[in-house]
Amino acid sequence: MSGKPRLTYLNGRGRMEPIRWLLAAAGVEFEEVYLETKEQYDKLIKDGFLLFQQVPLVEIDGMKMVQTRAIMSYIAGKYNLYGKDLKERALIDMYVEGISDLMQMILTFPFSPPDAKEKNLEAIKERATNRYFPVFEKVLKQHGQDFLVGNKFSWADVQLMEAILAVEEKVPAVLSGFPQLQVFKTKMSNMPTIKKFLQPGSPRKPPPDAHYVETVLRVFKK
């Protein structure tokens, strides 16, 4: 096995996508193993690879890591994307937690029953424009810096960029009332590692489609 981190998940976004984003933003190449059957998933559990019987699984630095938040904390710390002191880390944690709450709505959206899709889409738009994006607009405006914390690129910036693009896929004009976030998005898009990740052919996954939903239900069926 090479020294690259090895990611085991489905061939889609889900809970692995923020991990892909963070590794890519740090300029780290990784390998992926895709689960396609329940048997593959059950074997990982049986072999003791999954501490809590859940993926994502990331093999890095001799560890088999599970739990998205723990994996991302480790990657952020390892690649100097986690602030310079405890106070900065606390801010990054707060912002990341907030963005994760918004992303949870996006994560579950493809699994909405058809009659709930419109209502759930409206909820994503309402939360993004009234609860989450105003926070980051205000932070960027108040300190007048390019990044959310300590004027240095961090895990929080990566998460926010992912969230902006994910919401825009569903609500294209969502940033119309947020000039600071528009500038932030442009700057982030032009950072070399992120620019590379946004190119066709990168490990970034497309929005979930019916096939992805089908695969998730098949692999994780009780």
From TrEMBL:
Q: Which InterPro entries match?
A: Glutathione-S-Trfase_C-like (IPR010987), Glutathione-S-Trfase_C_sf (IPR036282), Glutathione_S-Trfase (IPR040079), Glutathione_S-Trfase_N (IPR004045), GST_alpha (IPR003080), GST_C (IPR004046), GST_superfamily (IPR050213), Thioredoxin-like_sf (IPR036249)
Give residue ranges for domain GST C-terminal: 85-209
Q: Fetch the SUPFAM superfamilies from UniProt.
A: GST C-terminal domain-like (SSF47616), Thioredoxin-like (SSF52833)
UniProt-listed GO biological process terms: glutathione metabolic process
One Pfam family this sequence matches:
GST_C_3
Q: What is its EC number?
A: 2.5.1.18
Q: Which stretches are annotated as coiled coil?
A: none
Q: Which GO terms describe its molecular function?
A: glutathione transferase activity
Q: Which Gene3D superfamilies match?
A: 1.20.1050.10, Glutaredoxin
Q: Which residues form the GST N-terminal domain?
A: 3-83
PANTHER family membership? GLUTATHIONE S-TRANSFERASE, GLUTATHIONE TRANSFERASE
Protein name according to UniProt: glutathione transferase
Organism from which the protein derives: Chaetops frenatus
